[in-house]
Amino acid sequence: MLKEINRDQQSLSKKSKPATVADKQIITDLADTLQHHSQTTVGMAANMIGEFKRIIIVQLGMIAVPMINPVILRKKGPYQTQEGCLSLEGERPTQRFEDITVQYLDRNFHPQQSDFSDFTAQIIQHEIDHCNGIII
Fold this sequence. Notes:
Its EC number is 3.5.1.88. The chain is of the alpha+beta class. The protein has helices at residues 9-12, 24-36, 118-131, and strands spanning 43-45, 55-60, 63-84, 91-105, 111-117.
């Protein structure tokens, strides 16, 4: 179901709680909302739709990949960049890493571990920051 975008910085600064199987509907709602905003965004975190669970979704080409309870295990190659956010106006400076390794649960709550680089790594870092209550 398409959800409204949360733009309240006070609530966005709250840390999200671990997701459970009971939170599966949030994945569908995130996917629907991401698809609706596909012209302006490539990733979302659950708190952006008012759900404070550790769930993100990232557009990888034609596929939107949900990541449940994601944790960055490894970061390499720090760099400075500017980012925008659907929940905020304008762009802000931030530090990201070129290469990351992420451990997460997939849509079926099966454990996964993957390496990501470049823009995909940047998106994932941005969305995990949301889960941690960090706003760029």
